[in-house]
Specification:
It is a single chain. The protein is built from four helices and no strands. It has helices at residues 2-24, 29-46, 52-63, 66-82. The model has no long low-confidence stretch (mean pLDDT 86).
């Protein structure tokens, strides 16, 4: 269990660093959220979740409509920023 949480924590930290870098080069929060949405669409279609956290996110993504997915992508950006 601790290994999975550490792996998820590393993922959140990595994502947070990428968001921070995007902000430093002048990307707006809206642009970053749009990119997060596009990445979420790709991951949902092409990547099998590797742990329970990724599975939960995918299950949420799968039941959401596009506007809800955009909210979820924005929330993931906020989560990433909180962990950078």
């Amino acid at each position: 269990m601790a290994t999975v949480l550490k792996a998820f924590d590393r993922w959140k930290e990595f994502l947070g660093e990428r968001v921070e870098q995007a902000e430093k080069v002048g990307m707006s929060e809206e642009t970053i959220s749009n990119l997060a949405f596009q990445i979420g669409e790709f991951l949902s279609d092409k990547v099998d979740p590797e742990n329970k956290e990724e599975r939960a996110i995918k299950e949420l993504w799968d039941v959401c409509d596009e506007s809800e997915r955009r909210v979820l992508a924005g929330a993931m950006v906020k989560l990433a920023k909180a962990n950078s």
